[in-house]
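Problem 12. The chain below contains 239 residues. Write out its predicted structure in token notation.
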Amino acid sequence: MQTRAVSEEVLIQRSYYRDTANRYDELHLADKGEHDFALAFMLSMIEFLDIRSILDIGSGTGRALLKVKSAYPDLPICGIEPSLELRSMGYAKGLTERELVDGDAQQLNYPDGAFDLVSEFAALHHIPDPGKAVSEMLRVASKAIFISDSNNFGQGGLLSRIAKQTLRSLRLWKIAVFAKTRGKGYLISESDGLAYSYSVFTDYPQISRSCKSVHLLNTVPAEMNLYRSAGFVALLGIK
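Solution.
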């Protein structure tokens, strides 16, 4: 039963990216937004952390890879992207087949510590088991991981955020998601395809156990408490 559900989700995702590949950048990268803000911050950390190699998961058409390649042309980079159509768009932009490859973020085909830095931009909320993907990021990274993704508990108006945060504190959030998605666990939209309800803060505990320091940055306007008010967050975990 579970295997069939996962297979159906994968087929839906592949169909969405196949159908929208030619306008993927228009849908996702047209304006500078939260992930561009996060990427600019990550670029500033490359020299600070003496990063010599980068792996990016869920690379899409190669936004992060191309920015890194432009700023640091001699830095070895590699991106994981399971969609053939999106990889093809990345190749058309100048990425090579060694720089953008097929793969599964939940089971990275690299040894421990293979890359200095492992990053992701807006990929985790499309992955059925984001915690497993984060675990793989931590395993493959020797120096740091960088995450730029959603915080569902900080999205929406004040009353909506309070309701979601209360449900989570009462351990009822999974039940609420189950009801909202009618048991599927995900929602589908024209702008984002198949997406799961996700918060960077959900994976904070395992990241903090594996890193010497963890740094959080709101990538959209927010109040002092990012968990309660920031709809999108960037996280840098330094080992």
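Discussion. The two ends are 39 Å apart (CA to CA). Students who got a different answer should revisit the alignment rule from Section 12.3.
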